Give the backbone structure.
Amino acid sequence: MATSTISTGERRGASSILLKSVMAITGLIFVGFILAHMYGNLMIFAGEEAFDEYAEHLRELLTPMLPYGGALWILRIVLLASLVGHAYAAFALWSRAGKARKSRYAVSGVAKSLFVSKAMRWGGVALLLFLVFHILHFTTNTIQINGDFDSPAARLVSSFEVWWAVGIYTLAVLALGMHLLHGVWGAGMTLGLNTSIAAAERLRIAAVLIAVVTVVGFLLPPFAILFGIIP
């Protein structure tokens, strides 16, 4: 039988509500970026020239009000700050959850959401590692797969002509889809969007749609390239 040993001491650091709010807001920022990034990847179906023009347009955005590449750097800074906030909040809540389980229960039990919670945590760690790989691969060209190309489109096509590169990105996209499925739902709950049964159902449908669209949208280019649909 579980016995409560909840401490009455004052908890140090940010409140759990604040941490969950940080995770929700930064997570939604990432959702917007991910959908825009997915749209950009789909430009490869219009041809390599169109894809390269899109990549160049990102660097020319808001010029001459901003210097060349200025808007892109602002976006990178916002995303980096969001990533730091999201990761910090996630690890802080992870740590608190672990301490709570150790201190509140004399006999261990399996919570209904334990699997989802662990999947979100370790999936988030895997996505963070993949993000580093992705930047080194496509952004800085430090990791080169199937050749060294200056053209973003040529780099994309040549990389996804290799089956194991497609495999790596497929696993990462599936992990991203699972993270979005539960993350969008959780963010909506944190921000109070589940005000009724109907609202909660709309939130659930939105989470499913965002996850499915993201997975399909990101996987279309690599598999189209691998199977020769995009030459």
Observations:
- Residues 1-10, 105-112 have pLDDT under 50 and may be disordered.
- The chain is about 70% helix and 0% strand.
